[in-house]
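Morning - protoporphyrin IX containing FE inputs below, output right after.
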Amino acid sequence: MIYPLILTLHLFAALIFIGTVFFEVLFLESIRKQLPARVMLLVEQGIGRRARSLMPWVLLVLFGAGLGMVWLRYLPALASPLTSSFGTLLALKIAVAMSVLLHFLGAMFLFKSGRMSPRYLHFIHASLFCHMIVIVLLAKGMFYLTW
Ligand code: HEM
């Protein structure tokens, strides 16, 4: 009974994280052109503050639940990832997730050190957007693709 609970937590955390990244790229980038720069700055500061307080918890649940599921069910598959399509795709998914974590830590560092620029932010958003597409394809592909 514990596994479905952890999976549900993982799914909720994933949809908050993926939803936020998609909102930033698909909505915010286009709203930028319609609003005066000063208003946009305030909007981005507000969203940034909220994201910096909420996202560490979302990532904690996401990664904690992910590790929990691996521990409960998928350790054998990960012990020799190249021997099954599932193990390979799960290992790839975890590698992409680690890169997501590095992006997040990098962004936190840039914000905290006052070095975050619109150019860096744009790059991080675009890169995370691509990571999210790959991670969802891997997350579902590992159950449906076999070779
Ligand atoms: C940015 C980070 C991550 C995102 C966005 C993400 C997203 C997802 C999504 C959307 C699913 C499909 C769930 C479903 O359809 O029921 C999934 C499944 C899964 N994820 Fe993650 N995940 C992330 C990180 C991780 C990490 C770090 C691990 C392990 C260390 C992990 C392990 C798993 C496992 C084992 C499943 C399969 C669960 C099952 O159906 O039995 N995930 N993930």
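Note: The helical segments are 2-31, 37-79, 85-112, 118-144.

O.
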